[in-house]
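Hi support team,

I submitted a single chain yesterday and got back a structure, but I'm not sure I'm reading the token output correctly. Could someone confirm the output below corresponds to the sequence I sent? I've pasted both exactly as they appear in my results page.

Thanks,
R.
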Amino acid sequence: MGKVRGELLPQLAIRSVNPREPVEVLFVPKPWRLVGAGNYAAVVLHPEEPGKVVKVYAEGRPGLQEEIEVYRRLGRHPAFSECYGAGESFLVLRRLAGVTIYECLRKGIRIPETVIRDIDDALAYARRRGLRPHDVHGKNIMMMDGRGAVVDVSDFLKEEPCIMWSDFKKSYYALYKPLLLLGLTFPIPDGWLNMLRKGYRLIRRRES
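Hi R., thanks for writing in. Yes, this is the structure output for that exact sequence:
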């Protein structure tokens, strides 16, 4: 916590321009390293503590207290991170080391069905803990040694229903698994993936 407050926060520069897009990371002080960025926050790592990451919320972005509550309810589960501590704008979390499903699609990495089943089990566990899984999609799901994990739980207290995971599963079984059975996996360019992502959001907004 001392390194976070003394070294990281005074120099880290992030901003949120569009709440529907990832935050912009303008500067990360050395030796900290950027791990990823979501719509609310940036995630960074210190090389001396590779088992932990720090999630720093951009100024003006809500959800920190809600995320702390989500982790309190989740407790310990292999498919979720764990909150070790929190401050006024950040959380210290157990690091989930792997590759996101989005990156698997982008790089042509095989996604076994065990990942899908693990995510199903993890979301069922979260529901039993009184949570409502939300915003579960390719960039928020990770594969670690062939097993599935949920990277981002910040929206698990939202009231409105979310069918992103259901839609993803339908696509997996209807489109991806048949190719997998034929031994056909290939990288999908960023442009195509972004077009699919934006098209999906547009369709869902119109339907709602």
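A quick pointer for reading it: Strands lie at 13-15, 24-27, 33-37, 41-45, 52-57, 83-86, 90-94, 99-100, 141-144, 147-150. Let us know if anything else looks off.

Best,
Support desk
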